[in-house]
Write a structure and sequence with these properties.
Blueprint (H helix, E strand, L loop, with lengths): L1 H17 L12 H6 L1 H8 L12 E5 L2 E6 L2 E3 L4 E2 L2 E6 L3 E6 L2 E6 L16
Antiparallel strand pairs: 1-2, 2-3, 4-5, 5-6, 6-7
Length: 122
């Protein structure tokens, strides 16, 4: 009887491992992107690693000087970021001059600063 239950247990363990998923290679694009051809478009979109949008902007202040943080690099006022020149950096906005046009990029979308209203004492 013990041999029969042991054999049955071994057979069930082997059967469950047959349905296991294979591991995905993390260096490859997802299968859906490869099927639609988006895998070719992804590297082309990242051709300019210094693309600035409000989703990947941060400001760092060091010794009183504000810096734009993109990835692992710091950019100060007057420096070039791709084709744009940094005109002004504040804690909530980055001003860029590109092709003669001044663009403002908000660091925090949907956030407005207002002075605090003093509480009324009862």
């Amino acid at each position: 009887m013990k041999r029969w239950t042991g054999s049955l247990l071994l057979a069930s363990l082997c059967a469950t491992s047959l349905g296991a998923q294979t591991l995905r290679d993390p260096t490859l694009a997802p299968a859906a992107a490869r099927a639609t051809g988006d895998a070719i478009a992804i590297p082309a979109a990242k051709a300019n690693p210094l693309a600035i949008d409000s989703g990947n902007v941060a400001v760092l202040v060091r010794n009183g000087t504000p810096y734009l943080v993109l990835g692992t690099r710091l950019f100060a006022t007057g420096q070039q970021v791709g084709a744009a020149r940094i005109e002004r950096i504040t804690e909530s906005e980055i001003w860029l001059l590109e092709a003669g046009k001044l663009n403002k990029i908000k660091v925090y979308q949907g956030v407005e600063r207002r002075p605090a209203v003093p509480l009324k004492k009862p």
